[in-house]
Design goal:
Blueprint (H helix, E strand, L loop, with lengths): L2 H11 L1 E4 L7 E4 L1 H5 L1 H12 L8 E5 L2 H13 L2 E5 L10 E7 L2 E7 L9 E9 L3 H12 L3 E11 L13 E7 L2
Parallel strand pairs: 3-4, 3-7, 7-8, 8-9
Antiparallel strand pairs: 1-2, 5-6
Helix pairs in contact: 1-3, 3-4
């Protein structure tokens, strides 16, 4: 499937929710995209295909990134690395705090999940200010793995999230203003 078909499906199926999670924020809800079987297959293929043969695992950022990472890992025949909110992982973790467009948060990863030097593709639903993905890529590198690329379904271009990810191979299926 083509990237243009993926972008079309994302554009058609994304729910736009004004004033969520607080007034002034326009939330792009991709859960209707994930609920559509054809759309999930098309976007998974579009996000993963450019990295085929180049990755050992696909990292998903909590929580919607888990959906994408599991589907992409299956499509690529590799494992899944999960990047979680604090207190959810039972063994030793590395933590990284960061700012969001509407607050702050922390993410964690278990550094013994993959062998040193593993090549990781990072997937998430939306690239907004870049804080979540910058924290995720930092955690991956601190754990001794290599970030091969970052793929997102939707990039909110006016928030300039790419600036938080200098030098990264970033792939977004649909680029739009917030």
């Amino acid at each position: 499937m083509s990237d243009s078909r993926a972008a079309q499906l994302v554009s058609e199926l994304t729910a736009v929710v004004p004033d969520f999670p607080k007034p002034g924020i326009t939330f792009r809800d991709l859960t209707p995209v994930f609920a559509d079987g054809d759309a999930l297959r098309v976007i998974t293929d579009a996000l993963a295909a450019p990295f085929a043969g180049r990755v050992d695992a696909v990292a998903g950022v909590e929580a919607r990134g888990f959906v994408l990472a599991a589907a992409a890992a299956y499509a690529l025949g590799v494992g899944v690395l999960i990047i979680r909110k604090p207190g959810k992982l039972p063994r030793e973790v590395l933590s990284q705090s960061y700012d969001l467009e509407y607050g702050s948060a922390t993410l964690e990863v278990q550094p013994d999940t993959l062998p040193a030097g593993s090549r990781v593709l990072v997937l998430d639903d939306v690239l907004a200010t870049g804080g979540t993905l910058a924290a995720s890529t930092s955690l991956i590198e601190r754990a001794g793995w290599t970030v091969v690329g970052v793929s997102v379904v939707l990039e909110l271009t006016n928030l300039e999230g790419r600036l938080a990810l200098p030098g990264r191979d970033i792939r977004s299926l649909l680029r739009a203003g917030a």
